[in-house]
Amino acid sequence: MSPTSPANRAGRLGVGIVGAGRVGPVLGAALAGAGHALVGISAVSDASLERADAMLPGVPVLSVPEVVERSELVILAVPADELPALVAGLAATGAWQPGQLVLHTAARYGTDVLAPALQRGAIPLAVHPAMTFTGTSLDISRLGEAWFAVTAPAPVLPIGQALVVEMGGEPHIVAEADRAAYAEAVETAVSFSSAIVDQAAGLLRGIGIENAGTFIAPLVRSSVEAALARSGASTIDVADLLADTGGGFDNPPAFEE
Q1: Calpha distance 14→173 (Å, rounded)
Q2: Which of 46, 139, 186, 189 could form a disulfide with 26 if both were Cys (CB 3.0 to 4.6 A apart)?
Q3: SS3 category, 104
């Protein structure tokens, strides 16, 4: 690692975001709040373009190769299923740069998925925020309550931890071999909670209780808080886990864009 690489530089980084789903713009906004410069974001659909404009006003919307070319830190906030092909494709075109930080947000992968970038001299980081995202500014404050799973080679692990702290979160090291189990735990927590609430609300609506979400909210909150207390959590605010009207969890898992 050269003395002038981003990993060794004391100043701020030029950050590029690949993916304008619910996660990327929020992390970009958090890093911008910590003083980093946002050099670009990739967005294609109307929804992603609107989100990029709302969360990161004035940040250029660029193609993926342009984002990578301009960035010292590239955040790959794309669906997990798309990540391997994206990393390999950019490596095949020679897009990755020596000393460039490459961070992905997929829960199921560690840094092995970034091997094509590493072979080009990039520095791999796997950082997953364990929270659901709305894709709005509301998520910025929620980052302060979130734990982030951090996986990286030992020499650069402090970089991933420092970036998490700058985003307001708490880093927790997860070994490469444990990422699959970690992802399963996250998916189980989100999907089962969502399915159970949706099912209960549907049953209530079936017997004429139209405001099912409001009706069931106190029960769900107290039950979840009790379960979390048994698992070691002290307190939690789960009010935002319920949809405003339907009673379901309408936010996708953090590892899905």
Answers
A1: 25
A2: 139
A3: strand
Query: Residues 86, 78: contact at Cβ < 8 Å?
Result: yes
Q: How far apart are CA 24 and CA 33, in angstroms?
A: 14
Q: Where are the beta strands (DSSP E) in the chain?
A: 14-18, 37-42, 73-76, 101-104, 123-129, 147-151, 170-173
**Residue 68, number of CB atoms within 10 A of its CB:** 24
pLDDT in tens, 34-69: 999 999 999 999 999 999 999 999 999 999 999 999
3-state DSSP helix/strand/coil % of the chain, to nearest 5: 50, 15, 35
Residue 167 contacts residue 36 (beta carbons within 8 Å): no
- Burial of 212 (C-beta count, 10 Å sphere; 0-12/13-18/19+): buried
- Give the count of alpha carbons within 13 A of 43, CB side only: 23
